[in-house]
Each structure stands twice: as C-alpha cells, then as structure tokens.
Design goal:
The complex is a heterodimer of chains A (257) and B (261). In chain A, helix 1 links the parallel strand 1 and strand 2. The longest helix of chain A has 33 residues. Chain A has a seven-stranded parallel sheet, with helices on both faces. Chain A is an alpha/beta fold. Chain A has a single domain, classed as Rossmann fold (3-Layer(aba) Sandwich). Chain A has seven helices and seven strands. The radius of gyration of chain A is 17 Å and the shape is globular. Chain B has 261 residues and is α/β, with parallel strands linked by helices. Helix content of chain B is 45%, strand content 14%. Chain B has eight helices and seven strands, in the order E-H-E-H-E-H-E-H-E-H-E-H-H-H-E. In chain B, helix 4 links the parallel strand 4 and strand 5. Chain B is globular, with a radius of gyration of 18 Å. In chain B, 51% of the residues are buried. Classes of the chains: A alpha/beta (257), B alpha/beta (261). Chains A and B meet through helix 5, helix 7 and strand 7 of A and helix 8 and strand 7 of B.
Chain lengths: 257, 261
C-alpha cells in the first residue's frame, strides 16, 4: 500500500496529547517516523509512542520545552542522530492562557502575554530555525505551523492575548515561505477553530458549535488529516498559506479584504 | 489500495483538458465515478473518458454549456440518472479573455460573466438539490489568484469574475453548511495548459516560464496535477471540517497587489 508519508521523518512538537497526538499518530499511520515531543506529560507521550509502535511504526519521544533554545537544539540533534534527517516539522506546541483585556488584572495579563509569547511565538521561531538548517541541506522540507482562527479574528471572549501570538505565527508562516521557498521548503499553517481537546471548555465547545455552519466542533483527527495533506507531496505547490479548519464559523470580526 | 474517493460520484465541469482533465483523471484514480463535461472539445473529452476506462475507472461524457441553465439541469440529471447520485461538484469550466479594461469588448466581458459566474451558480443550484436531499456534498470552485489580486496585466476583468466566485464560495458554505455540504475554492496561479502553449514556439514558452519562476518562492511552475491533488483533498472526507475556504496554490507568489488585512 502506498502510504503518503512513507520513509519521511517528522517532528511534532507538543504531541503527547490533543491535536499534536492525533497528528503524530496519523503521520505514523502514513508511514512517517515520528518524534513525539513533550514538555511535561511523559506518561502520555510514552502512550503515543507505544500506540505508534503497536501500529508497526517507528517513534522516538523527546522531552523539550520549545521556549528554551537549548532544549530545541537538543531535540533537533536527537532526531538527526536517530533518523539522520528531518523532512517534516509540525509546530504544534502551544499554551492557551485565558486573559480578558479589561477584566484580567494587569500584572496577570502581562504575565500570560509574555509566557505565550515565549512558547507560541519564539518556540516556533526556534524550531523553524534549527530544523531549517537540515532541510536547506536536503533541499526539501515541510513546515506546518498550528495557528488558530483566533489569529484571524473570531469574536470569541477571553482569547485576545492568545490570538495575538497566533497572528504572529501567521505572518511568520508567510514570510518563511518566502525565505525558505527557494530551498524547496514549503511553509504553511493550519488555523483550527474549536477542537475537542482537554484545552476546550464545555461552554466554549457549545458556543463554537452554535457558531459553525456545519453545526459541529472539530475532532483532533480533522486537523491531523489536514496536517497529513500539508506534510505530503499532495500539497507541493502550496506554500505561505493559512488553511482555516473551523467548520465554517460565522463569528469573525470585521476586517478589510 | 485505499481509494480516497471510493464509490463517490463527481461532476467536473470543463474537464476535457487542462486542470479539469487532470482533476477528472485523478478523481477516477481515487475510485470516483466521473462525469466529464465539455462544450467544444468532444474528441478531447472522449480521450479523457478512455484514459479513465483504461485505468479501470468509470466515466461518462456529457456536452453542456454551463452558461445555459437548461443544459446544466440536463447535465446534472444525466449524472444522477447514470450513477444514481452526485456527491462532488467541481466548478472548473471558465473562459478567459485577455485584455485591458480599456479595450476589452463588451461581448467578452459578458461571456466571462455568463460562464465564470452564472455558470457556477447554475451548477451549484442544480447539484445542491440532490446534495441537500442526501445531507452530503462537496463543492469545489476553481477560482484564481488573479481574484485575490496579483499584479498581472490583462486579466482584470477575468479576476473580477473569479472574485465573484470567491464570495459565492463563502456565502454558499454558510447557506449549505447545515445540510452537510462543504463548499470551498482553490485558487491556482499560472498553470501552463494547452491554452497557454497554443501558438507559441518552444523558445517563447521557455522565456515566459523562466520569467514567471522569478515571482514564485518555490521557483517552479505549476502542473495541472499540483492543482488536482488539492481538489482531491477538498473532495474527500479528509477535509470534512473545512468549509468556506479559498486555498491558494501558487507556489508562493511574491507579486500581490497591496491590500488591507
């Protein structure tokens, strides 16, 4: 059977659970060797690796906090040492700290903003920079950034600081596509809407369901299948794009075209 | 072999050549029954049907001008009568007249409006009747990066018709979403198809392609297959949570016109 990622090597950051976990599993099912990265949930990461192995796949788990450059360097080095190269990088690791522009105490608001900046933005920059060195050498690579439809502008409460970090990832995607394109590297982003993970609250899920034209919220697999498409050569002429997967939300904020 | 469109039925308008042809052939390879629609190129449509049959697929060819509502109705009815249903509609048929806004003739503008915009509306309406009934459907509109605003001369009015299809895509996703129908668009950039190659020498073609490559981040020119592969994704259930989106397939063009976010 021709699998769509046969023989490829992928790093999926933050893949011990949620969307990252689904991506790691789907990639392995499509024949990729996967590095399951985690920061804290060691047991969950191990379960993902075991599940991949039980499918007959190959996986490696590595602990690294993407907001620490040294950790990222070590992560990338471990993958190279083990698999010899990196074809696919999925920047999925992120944190979502709720913060309301008016309600949240100033000190707390700035603390969460800074923390999300470290993980959601600089973490992505670190991973891209370290991995791109190897991809450039191979004249091949697929970088997939997990952004969010919040970064495009949904009328969703309590997520403005988070949305800011995801908007930064969106422009990073577009600019890196330009910088890395000549080396045969595709850089795209996925902007999921509400997805059923342990990050989601029951109220958030219900709100998002009501505001989607398909009348449902996403499953991690919905996003994983899109990630497979972007990691595969089915999308080889796509770069610099942000693909929204949100079931057709009807609550976007006003914007010029 | 796992076929990503197994047992599905698709109508691909304008599929006797170019991007449409490539979509029809790739859909068939993924296990889909395909209606190859054409308006002028009967021989080429037949060649597509034969190629699909040779690969072990199933296809029919139906002549219909998408700008005529009665022909579209008959087209869709033929698909449903032959294959029992319609799951996927790819609105690919379009015409392009090249020229500045100052010297384009009214007939050319009207023809683009009739085919590129009203043709898509007619096809969506006729196909959606069946899709609504079965609470399932995938509509993929083929638009163009021109409509998003590339700095290319001679295609302003063509771009206008494609921009209309972009907003149609988004609004139809809203109208048809509750019935389980996904509506998305793909926006290819420059793809050298027969139409482009016609009447040019090999050297002329090479020179144009070289120049084009400079405006593309990936430094290469698209093939019809690059576009068809994305159409497969949008026609499959892999994209079931995606609706109302326009996916640009342009290798990362660097020559878009200024725009607000």
């Amino acid at each position: 059977m021709a699998r769509r990622l046969d023989g490829k090597v992928a790093i999926v950051t933050g893949s011990s659970r949620g969307i990252g976990r689904a991506i790691a599993l789907e990639f392995a099912r499509e024949g990729a060797k996967v590095c399951v990265n985690y920061a804290r949930s060691e047991d969950k990461a191990r379960q993902v690796v075991e599940e991949i192995k039980s499918l007959g796949g190959e996986a490696l788990m590595i602990r690294a906090d993407v907001s620490k450059l040294d950790d990222v360097k070590q992560l990338v080095k471990s993958v190279i040492d083990r698999f010899g190269r990196i074809d696919i990088l999925v920047n999925n690791a992120a944190i979502m700290l709720r913060g309301d522009f008016l309600e949240t105490e100033d000190e707390e608001f700035y603390r969460i903003l800074d923390r999300m900046w470290e993980v959601n933005v600089k973490g992505v920059v670190y991973c891209c920079k370290e991995v791109a060195k190897y991809m450039i050498r191979n004249r091949y690579g697929k970088i997939i950034n997990i952004a969010s439809n919040a970064g495009i502008g949904t009328a969703f409460p309590g997520t403005t600081p988070y949305a800011m970090t995801k908007a930064a990832v969106i422009i990073l995607t577009r600019r890196l596509a330009f910088e890395l394109g000549p080396y045969g590297i595709n850089v795209n982003a996925i902007a999921p809407g509400m997805v059923l993970t342990d990050m989601a609250t029951p109220e958030g899920i219900e709100l998002a369901r009501k505001r989607s034209v398909l009348g449902r919220v996403g499953k991690p697999e919905d996003i994983a299948r899109l990630a497979v498409f972007l990691a595969s050569d089915d999308s080889s002429y796509l770069t610099g794009q942000v693909i929204v997967a949100d079931g057709g939300r009807i609550d976007y904020l006003t914007h010029s075209l | 072999m796992s076929c990503r469109l197994n047992g599905k039925v698709a109508l691909v308008t304008g599929s006797s050549r170019g991007i449409g042809r490539s979509i029809a052939i790739m859909f068939a390879r993924e296990g889909c029954k395909v209606c190859v629609n054409y308006v002028g190129s009967e021989d080429k449509a037949r060649a597509v049907v034969e190629e699909i049959a040779a690969n072990g697929g199933e296809a029919i060819m139906v002549k219909a001008d998408v700008s005529r509502p009665d022909e579209v109705r008959r087209l869709v009815e033929t698909v449903v009568n032959t294959f029992g249903t319609i799951d996927i509609l790819v609105n690919n048929a379009a015409v392009m007249y090249y020229g500045s806004i100052m010297d384009m003739r009214d007939e050319e503008l009207d023809r683009m409006w009739e085919v590129n915009v009203k043709g898509v509306i007619y096809c969506c309406r006729e196909a959606a009747r069946y899709m609504i009934e079965k609470r399932y459907g995938k509509i993929v509109n083929v638009v163009s990066t021109a409509a998003i605003g590339t700095a290319s001369h001679g295609t302003t009015l063509y771009a206008l018709t494609k921009a209309a299809v972009i907003i149609l895509t988004r609004r139809l996703a809203f109208e048809l979403g509750p019935y389980g129908i996904n509506v998305n668009a793909i926006a290819p950039s420059f793809v050298p198809t027969d139409m482009f190659l016609q009447g040019k020498t090999k050297e002329e073609v090479e020179a144009i392609l070289e120049k084009r490559k400079e405006t593309v981040s990936l430094k290469r020119i698209a093939t019809p297959e690059d576009i068809a592969k994305v159409a497969v994704f949008l026609a499959s259930d892999e994209s079931s949570y995606i609706t109302g989106q326009v996916i640009v397939i342009d290798g990362g063009r660097i020559d878009y016109l200024t725009h607000s976010l």
